[in-house]
Amino acid sequence: MVRFLLSRPIAVTMVFLALMVFSLIGFTKLPISLLPPIDVPQIVVKVNYPNASPEAIEQNVLSRVREGLITLNELEDMDSKAGSETGTLRLQFAYGTSMELAYIEVNEKIDRLTNSLPQELAHPQVIRINTNDIPMVRLQVIPKEGTDYAAVTKLAENVLKKRIEQLQGISLVDINGKQERVITVEPNKAVLAGLGMTEQNVINAIRSGNSEPSGISVKDGQYRYFLRLATRVDTPEDIAGLPVMGPGGNMVELNKVANVQYQMGSPMGYHLYGEQEGLVITIHKQAAAKMNELMEKVSESVELFKKDYPQVDFALSQDQSALLNAGINNLQTSLLFGGIFAFGVLFIFMGNYKMPLIIGVSLPTSLLISFLVFYAFGISINVISLSGLALGLGMLIDNAIIVLDNITRKRQEGLPLFDACVKGVNEVMSALISSVLTTLAVFVPLVFLSGISGALFFDQAVSVAAILFVSLLVAFILLPLLYRLFFAKKQWDSNQEDSRFFKWVLALYKSGYQRLMTQRRLSLILLLALIPLFLMIGLALPKEGLPPIGKKDVLIELDWNEPIAVKQNLERVKGMMALLGNSFEHAEADVGVRQFLLFDGENSVQEASIYIDFRDQASKEKYTAQLEKQLRAQYPQASIKLMDAPNAFDQLFASNRPYYEMRWKDLKDKKPVDAATMEPWLEDLPVKQWKKGPGLQEESAVVFHLDLEKLALYQIELNEIAGQIERLFGAYTIDEIKQFSEVTPIRLLENDADYRGILASNYLRSKEGQPYALANFIQVGYEDHYKYVTADKTGIYQSVEITAPNPQNRERELKNWGLDRNLSVSFSGQYFKDQENLQQLIGILGVAVLLLYFILAAQFESFVQPLIVIFTLPLGIGGALLVLWLTGTSLNVMSAIGLVVMLGIMVNDAILKIDTINRLRVKYAEQERDLTDREILEQALFKAGEIRLKPILMTSMTTILALLPVVFSSGLGADLQRPLVFSVMGGLTIGTLTALYFVPLMYWALSRKKNKEERRKIGVVSS
Predict the structure, then answer these.
(1) Number of structural domains, the chain?
(2) CATH number of domain containing 121
């Protein structure tokens, strides 16, 4: 096949050019995003039920929703959490579930449940989680001094949002910090009392004046018209002119008994940029959009906004495209330095400038054609697929070096140029195919990991497989074609390919080889003894998900754990900002209830989330330590979580689940065990290191106890006092004015006085019209109650998070503790998910090793020789772990990927070495029939080492040197890639010595007893 293709250079060249043209077209159409569009199999149902307690939300809403959704297809887990006025239900589905269908099914089932839910409850909000839900950037909208905040809110909602949504590639625009303008009605209680009226008369007048009949029509001759009442109100002036009817038939205009005006509504949450109140617009991209191009369009739009709306300040923050740009820059760096160092290494070893030029052509060709595979598989250009390309590039250089070196060796043996190209490729073809297959055998099974990890590995596996197979195509066809073209007119000089440096290295290798082989048994025992020693280092390494990234931004999650109003929350956060001074580049905070459509966390007026981007790392460490110390001293009850600001990876892999959670249910009452009973029980818990779960957290509340006897005595209806309390406390909405898409609430003016003063200064009238203060009928008390009610598929539970080491060893004691108290105890948490993933990983790696063995057994036609390759792997892993330990690097996702890459390169070297030994044994057995098997083996081992020394050293050195700049670089991309680089460099350093010395030793140990029957097996029959 190679001979046929090389004999038609023009046809082959045209085919490659055509492939590159199509690849270029495909590349321009590839979406560019930060992460692959992964369907996270999770749906969140949010419930907003104003003025409802956690118990009421659980009993009246969430329990019914859980019962209705329990039969969902592929549903794995269900957890709900009811708090004051809000409830959240999380549905976890099996990976691979069609989330489009699941989303439709959840909505349909909730629609059917509507009649069984409270009438005043707004329709539950269903949120589907996707990686594209992570905003690519946040746009800050800050009103300048003197600008109407309500007008800026309308600008953001009706103009800015629409203009951004019109950009090609935008999927969703979400807003937080909105404040609405409302019409407030402040009744004059003294005047009303003088006229014998109440607030209810004013409310009735407004509702009557704002009514509009629906579906009523009048006939006029042969025509029919829909009826509209002209009395409908639109402005505060219209409301002020409405007539109010008193009990005696007297009538006055509303403006005589109440003050009506526009005011800003009382918000449940705020957004801050620095210390300024404003709005934030989060911008989400479509899966098929190119993030870097879309960011340019967004930036251009923001510049236009600054010109069009000078009364507002704009700023972009938390730009997630920085991660993507870091990945692209890393790939460019790998290409640049890979080419430079490949040229340098080849020149040092071969003293020939044409070889690097050939590789310089093959590298971009392979990369470009790989994008055609991306297009075929629907893979986007993202950080994961780019890392796969970067991994494959190192092996691409290796294949090119091996093929070129073998063609050169055939020319040294005296073959003509054409025959040298053909035979040089054919000789290493099977070994290179096997090396690619073994690499994929190690890497591709990781796709079958469950969860997000497996979904992410799919993109990486496809990108690695694409560039490896394309590199084989280039190495087998394009490289020999280019070699023939470059050297067609040049006379061969047998001394031009080996530099003085390589001759010195070769002499050094021979000396080391001879010393090693004189003490074979001892050398082999020492090398085998290093395997457990190296692997033990892995136990000492710290384990984590992602490598620690040097960040200068921080996220502070606050829960004050005090019944404060959102305004007080805002003042506290502003105070924090003031303490930091000008130490930060920018900061923003979401205070209280968040209005984002896609927000799936807890919504409470007592919570705040603060993002601070400091000027440098030193400022971050200094000021965060001071801030945390001061907050804990000033607000000891507050829950403070201070962490590095999460990037898209952190948000994707973040889990709300505790590490190890013990749950229990009351088997008797099917409700939470009350706090008075629970406290002494928890003191007897067998484990002392634990913290309370959400179902045990308490908060204080004011409780109104109605004196029913007095109400009956004074002949006051119960619903009358309930209505009065509803009007006096909180935002009471009388009605709404609807004008097209704009809705303006009409509300009673809120009373900011202390509740005791309100009860003392407001009255109820008996049937005789005698007024009595509310305080006469209400007794006020304080009590602590559970802040949340938590439940799962089987009902309400309470929990503690076990923080003691090895909590799984105490399960029996904890279960007995529950049984003694008639509690059903179960365990859950991230620990069990990690154990499941670990078991999966061990199983998958076992399958990978079996695949590796089968491929190598087919390649070598031996059941024994594959063991040589497999025994080299622990040494490479040990070398990588040793370097990770010496550099203080953890074992994380990136260092694990580095291990896989390093093993792929190591396997290549070992396969080629063994393949060369096998071929030389056949050759010597045919040519030197008077030699014994032992002599043939020793000659083959020595000669194979000499032949393969150059490509092994060159492939290792080009890979190590190409990665070396990352070690000395700084920034997000370098921090992510550095553990991978340390793994590869450490493994290849040991792996190179392994390929040079360990492989021949193991080959000798496993082959020294071969006899004439073995010679017959490899193709030689004795005479």
Answers:
(1) 4
(2) 3.30.70.1430
- Of the residues 603, 621, 646, the one at which a domain ends: 646
pLDDT tens-digit series, residues 770-800: 788 888 888 888 877 888 899 998 889 999 9
Q: What are phi and psi of 835, to 5 degrees?
A: -65, -40
CA separation for the pair 745, 620 (Å, rounded): 44
Q: How far apart are CA 218 and CA 560, in angstroms?
A: 60
Token digits of residue 399 = 């294949």
Does residue 874 lie in a domain region? yes
Q: At what angle do helices 383-412 and 417-443 cross, to 10 degrees?
A: 150
Task: Say whether both 455 and 538 belong to one domain.
Answer: yes
Q: Is residue 702 part of a domain?
A: no
In this structure, the answer to whether residues 426 and 470 fall within a common structural domain is: yes
Q: 270 with 260, same domain?
A: no
For the chain, state the CA radius of gyration.
37
Write out the two tokens for 465.
């497989």
Closest CA to 908 of 529, 473, 445, 472: 472
Where residue 193 sits, what CATH number does that domain have? Answer: 3.30.2090.10
Shared-domain flag, residues 289 and 422: no
Q: Which DSSP string do the residues of 814-846 spell out, in sequence order?
A: HHHHHHHTTEEEEEESHHHHHHHHHHHHHHHHH
E-state strands within 530-638: 553-559, 584-592, 607-614
Q: Tell whether the model's pLDDT for residue 1008 goes beyond 70.
A: no
User: pLDDT by residue (tens digit) across 74-93?
Assistant: 898 899 999 888 889 999 88
Give burial (CB, 10 Å; 0-12/13-18/19+) of 541: middle
CA–CA separation, 22 and 369 (whole Å): 8
Q: Is the pLDDT of residue 1023 over 50?
A: no
DSSP reduced 3-state for 676: helix
Which CATH number characterizes residue 606's domain?
3.30.70.1320
Q: Among residues 957, 912, 791, 934, which one has the least CA distance to residue 83? A: 791
How far, in Å, CA of 79 to CA of 694, rounded?
12
812 lies in some domain: no
- Say how far apart CA 449 and CA 443 lie, in whole Å: 11
The neighbouring-strand residues paired with 773 are 763
**Residue 541 and residue 435 share a domain:** yes
Tokens of 218: 């009048």
pLDDT at site 339: 64
Q: Which two tokens stand for residue 427?
A: 């000789």
For 22-179, list the strands marked E by DSSP: 39-48, 75-82, 86-93, 125-130, 137-143, 170-176
Angstrom distance (rounded) from CA 976 to CA 324: 12
Q: Which two tokens stand for residue 107?
A: 């909505």
Task: Provide the total of helices (H) and of strands (E) in the chain, helices listed first.
Answer: 35, 30
Determine contact, residues 20/365, Cβ cutoff 8 Å.
Answer: yes
Same domain, 398 and 523: yes
pLDDT of 278 > 90? The answer is yes
**Residue listed under structure tokens 């063994």:** 914
191, 292: one domain: no
- Cβ atoms of 594 and 683 within 8 Å: the answer is no
- CATH number of the domain enclosing 6: 1.20.1640.10
**Distance between CA atoms of 402 and 317, rounded to whole angstroms?**
48
Give 932-976 as a 3 state SS string.
CHHHHHHHHHHHHHHHHHHHHHHHHHHHHHHHHHHHCCCCHHHHH
Q: Which two tokens stand for residue 535?
A: 């692997």
296 and 356 share a domain? no
Strands 181-187, 742-748: pairing is parallel
Residues 356-392 have pLDDT tens digits of 778 777 778 888 888 888 888 888 887 777 767 766 6
Tell me the one-letter amino acid at 394.
Answer: G
Task: Please indicate, yes or no, if residue 759 is contained in any of the structural domains.
Answer: no
Last residue of a domain, one of 611, 646, 681: 646
Task: Tell me how crowded residue 224 is: count the other CB atoms within 10 A of its CB.
Answer: 9
* Structural domain for 87, as ranges: 36-131
Dist CA 849 CA 842 (whole Å): 10
